[in-house]
Design brief:
PPR_rpt; repeat; 993 residues; mainly alpha; elongated; single chain; disordered C terminus
């Protein structure tokens, strides 16, 4: 040792001696160097082998004052009269650590007598922290062991568990093979056998705490080989580590050895054993173990057992433990019930949860808010929204009020599903919402949108709008996304007017619409046929600096093409390209579909061919100006649009070839493509081809739907293949595809057309039995069938039946029935029906007429003579009814009624040219009835309305004059006709005359 270091050590020793000089020797309690007196009461288990026999005075403290033990022992172990509270304490301690560790590392005698003598001045400063820091710096296992042994012999200091832990770390426990070298253990045994006993027990416990059960077993074996016994604490630690490792059998063996050694498990270890046995489904073994240990469980112990049983889904056994608790005067607490509820919730035992909750509340144990939230979430997830709502009503009685989370869970669960909730479930959400408002709570942004969507789906559009306003009053600020979603819901429900109002409200609230909002509105209004308003919003977007995207352009272009406004569509497409907005496959698909619907099937085919890169046509250059080399390839929707267009243009062969092209291009046809092709073949009368596609569709995994069956049935009836219709119906039943009103109506109409009206009527009754109500088209087809079969009474009966079932007849129904009544001479009934029709339905405009005939097949419309009349510009075909009635009243000789009907139709806004036939027919009838004066009045009225008479009209007038003997007037009229420079177009009637 050099002189400088020696002087430093000497000065430190002198200071130490001076600081001790104020204490008399008798003030120092004699402490044995043997480890038997170095107890650590309160820090470790009383049965720990480190400390036996004698104890410091603190062990005499009663349990009431046990909290003082740690304080007293810590003050004994860690304090020293040599340490002051000056600010230099930390630096002084660091200096001592440095001095001691350097001295140990530099000692020449291996921490021999000379080194120990030099360390005497540090004895009064020894503490847990100091010893640990020195060993941590020295790191040398052999030197640390010797320092540890020296420190343990010093008066006023005792090793703590932390010191033992540090020594074991330095000795190599947990590193390499994890085993402490035997030579170090032998050195400790040679110094103090009992100390080694304690160290080995501590080593086993340390392995257990680290989960190293295999190493703990090896150390237990070494402990026994050295002639030592494990302590109670060690056995408890071993039992716990094997339980945690799931090695129940080994834990039992350790417990058996422990019992043979005269030890019993502590309460915590026994509770772990019981928990593990219960979790393994061995509840009886757990109870037997408790009896063997003569242990009296408390509530906490039973709760551990119930936890294990719940994790094993043994809920009956868990309830049995609950009963045992009560029989042993151990009262279940709120934790007991929460464990049961949590276990049942995790395993989906919701029925049991209800019983537990009822018992729990009855016994005065109330769930907290978190448990209520979990319960509500579980019942909502299971679809039991009614009970979830009842739980929210129970919360105030249990001392907690529903909060933000619960209301959002309840309303969000009801409204977040893609399928709309039923009316009663939605009503629960509305009740919860009203209660939420009273509590001053708001929904989050997602739930506001979902709730509004469900209300819109239920037709409660005003309430959906009101919700947004109420949330705003509570501080919730809807953004563009929220407004856009609600606007989208309204548009999907065809409530475009309300969507427009909400959009205006959005702008008034200062929320700037995004391209997404504008696009929703533009697309929805385009689909509703309101293209002009859609284009106004498009212009507004541009004016406000909101750049349209490809979806916006595509929606408008498609709408213009469907409306046959190809020029406007092309103009918009050019603008799209100028703005650098690249068309995508959806755009090109919209172009193909739009051109098909506009009747320009060739252009649609050219666009498709250009997409595939097959042809170069200058006509299509405008659509492919951007990235011509990287053109969008057609997808299944593109093919579907073109197949549908080709089929509707009666080019089914080309459509069938397109199906084969799809397969070669690796594009798998979907249900829509197959349905369009089947429908096309059916309408073209190619049943065998339709059946072939039907078989191909089934082979590729697609099941026929109502649309598929509808096409086949319609075709089969047209071909009078009733036998195959029955096979199709059987196929539908096998596929659990119940016919809808369209299919039933097709079958009823088909049966009527082949004269099987009785079977058709039975089918109509059958569809009602099946819960499918006939509509106006169904009833009208049945009326027409009975009429053509001569069963006029049944026709009138069906009219009365449909009216009694709140199915109002429309214009076509009246037209068919009036026509049949006239055919059977029931003119008064026909006249009554006309009066009834005028009170209930009187189409004033061609658009109204078009709406009326929706749902009827083209063949049916043609069969009753409406197809040609529809093509007349703004011509309302109601005059055909008057023509039928007037003709029949004329034939019946009731000219007065016929004239009254004619005056009525003449006063209507129907163009006079539409009454030309009526004028001619009435003039002829009046002439034949010798009412020439009235015939000439009618002729004058005809001319005044610029209706050009036919030659036959003059012939009838001349004949009428001759009938009443007015030959002179007849000759004058005949001469006048001859003087006219008119090239007459003779009709068949004139030629006959």
């Amino acid at each position: 040792m050099n002189k400088r270091v020696f002087n430093t050590l000497l000065c430190s020793s002198l200071r130490s001696l001076h600081s001790h000089s104020k204490f008399s020797p008798h003030h120092l309690r004699p402490i044995s160097t043997s480890s038997e007196d170095n107890t650590l009461e309160g820090l470790i288990h009383p049965d720990d082998p480190f400390f036996h026999d004698s104890s410091p005075p603190t062990t005499c403290l009663t349990n009431e004052y046990s909290f003082l033990r740690n304080t007293l022992i810590n003050s004994t172990s860690h304090s020293s009269p040599n340490l002051d509270d000056s600010s230099g304490e930390c630096s002084s301690n660091d200096e001592e650590v440095a001095l001691m560790s350097n001295a140990i590392r530099n000692c020449n005698d291996g921490f021999g007598i000379e080194t120990q003598k030099s360390f005497r001045r540090f004895r009064g400063r020894l503490s847990e922290k100091l010893v640990i820091q020195v060993m941590n710096r020295v790191k040398n296992p052999e030197l640390c062991v010797r320092f540890f042994l020296w420190a343990g012999r010093q008066i006023g200091y005792a090793h703590t568990p932390q010191v033992y832990n540090e020594l074991l770390d330095v000795m190599g426990c947990g590193g390499g093979d994890g085993r402490v070298p035997n030579k170090l253990l032998r050195e400790i045994r040679d110094d103090d056998k009992e100390l080694l006993h304690k160290l080995l027990n501590f080593l086993i416990q340390k392995c257990c705490r680290n989960g190293l059960w295999n190493m703990a077993l090896e150390e237990l074996g070494r402990l026994k080989d050295l002639g030592y016994k494990a302590s109670r604490t060690t056995y408890n630690a071993l039992v716990r580590v094997f339980l945690e490792a799931g090695k129940l059998d080994t834990a039992y063996l350790v417990h058996k050895e422990m019992s043979n050694s005269g030890f019993v498990m502590d309460g915590y270890t026994l509770s772990c054993f019981a928990y593990t046995l219960c979790k393994a489904g061995r509840c009886r073994d757990a109870l037997t173990l408790i009896e063997t240990e003569a242990f009296v469980p408390d509530t906490v112990f039973y709760n551990r057992m119930i936890t294990g049983l719940c994790e094993a889904s043994l809920f009956e056994e868990a309830m049995g433990i609950l009963d045992r608790m009560r029989s042993n005067s151990c009262i279940p607490n709120v934790v007991t019930y929460r464990i049961l509820l949590s276990g049942c919730l995790r395993k989906g035992q919701l029925g049991r949860c209800k019983r537990i909750l009822t018992t729990m509340i009855t016994e005065g144990c109330y769930p907290n808010r978190d448990m209520f939230n979990s319960l509500v979430h579980a019942y909502c997830k299971s679809g039991d929204y009614s009970y979830a709502y009842k739980l929210s009503k129970k919360m105030p009685k249990c001392g907690c009020r529903p909060g933000y989370l619960l209301y959002n869970i309840l309303i969000g669960s009801i409204c977040s599903n893609e399928e709309l909730p039923s009316s009663d479930v939605l009503e629960l959400a509305e009740k919860a919402y009203d209660e939420m408002l009273d509590s001053g709570v708001v929904l989050n942004k997602v739930n506001v949108s979902n709730f509004a969507r469900c209300l819109c789906g239920a037709g409660k559009f005003d309430k959906a709008f009101k919700i947004i306003c109420e949330m705003m009053s509570k501080g919730f600020i809807p953004d563009d996304s929220t407004y856009s979603k609600v606007i989208g819901f309204l548009c999907d429900a065809s409530k475009v007017e309300k969507a427009f109002s909400l959009f205006e409200e959005m702008k008034r609230n200062g929320v700037v619409p995004s391209v997404y909002t504008y696009t929703i509105l533009i697309d929805s209004f385009c689909k509703a046929g309101l293209i002009q308003q859609a284009h106004k919003w498009f212009d507004e977007m541009l004016r406000d600096g909101c750049t349209p995207n490809v979806v916006t352009y595509t929606a408008l272009i498609h709408a213009y093409l469907k409306a046959r406004k190809v020029f406007d569509a092309n103009k918009l497409f050019e603008m799209m390209l100028l703005e650098g907005c690249k068309p995508n496959v959806v755009t090109y698909t919209a172009l193909i579909d739009g051109h098909c619907k506009a009747g320009q099937i060739e252009k649609a085919c050219q666009i498709y061919a250009r997409m595939r890169g097959d042809v170069e046509t200058s006509d299509m250059d405008m659509y492919f100006q951007l990235d011509d080399n990287d053109c969008e390839r057609p997808n299944v929707i593109t093919y579907g649009a073109l197949v549908d267009g080709l089929c509707k243009a009666n080019r089914v062969k080309q459509a069938r070839e397109l199906l084969d092209t799809m397969s070669t291009q690796g594009c798998v046809p979907n249900q829509i493509v197959y349905d369009a092709l089947i429908d096309g073949f059916c309408k073209a009368g190619k049943l065998e081809d339709a059946q072939e596609v039907f078989a191909k569709m089934s082979e590729n995994g697609y099941s026929p739907n109502l649309y598929t069956y509808s096409s086949l049935i319609d075709c089969l009836f047209r071909d009078k293949r009733l036998d195959l219709v029955l096979r199709v119906l059987s196929k539908m039943q096998e596929s659990s595809c119940a016919p809808n009103v369209v299919i039933y109506t097709e079958m009823i109409d088909g049966l009527c057309k082949v004269g099987k009206t009785d079977e058709a009527y039975k089918l109509m009754l059958k569809m009602e039995e099946k819960g499918c109500c006939p509509n106006v088209v169904t009833y009208t087809a049945m009326i027409d069938g009975f009429g053509k079969s001569g069963k006029i009474e049944q026709c009138l009966e069906i009219l009365r039946d449909m009216c009694s079932k709140d199915c109002a007849p429309n214009f076509i129904t009246y037209r068919v029935l009036i026509n049949h009544c006239c055919s059977f001479g029931l003119l008064d009934e026909a006249h009554r029906l006309l009066d009834e029709m005028k009170q209930t339905y009187w189409p004033r405009h061609i658009s109204s007429h078009r709406k009326v005939i929706e749902g009827f097949s083209r063949e049916f419309i043609a069969s009753i003579g409406l197809l040609d009349e529809m093509s007349e510009n703004e011509s309302v075909p109601v005059d055909s009814l008057y023509r039928i009635l007037i003709d029949n009243f004329v034939r019946a000789g009731k000219l007065e009624v016929a004239l009254n009907l004619f005056e009525e139709i003449s006063s209507s806004p129907i163009p006079a040219v539409g009454n030309k036939y009526l004028y001619t027919s009435l003039i002829e009838s009046l002439s034949l009835a010798n009412k020439v004066d009235k015939a000439f009045e009618l002729y004058a009225n005809m001319v005044s309305k610029n209706v050009v008479p036919e030659l036959s009209t003059f012939v009838h007038l001349i004949k009428g004059l001759t009938r009443v003997g007015k030959w002179q007037e007849a000759l004058q009229l005949s001469d006048s006709i001859c003087q006219m420079d008119i090239h007459w177009l003779y009709d068949e009637e004139t030629r006959a005359n």
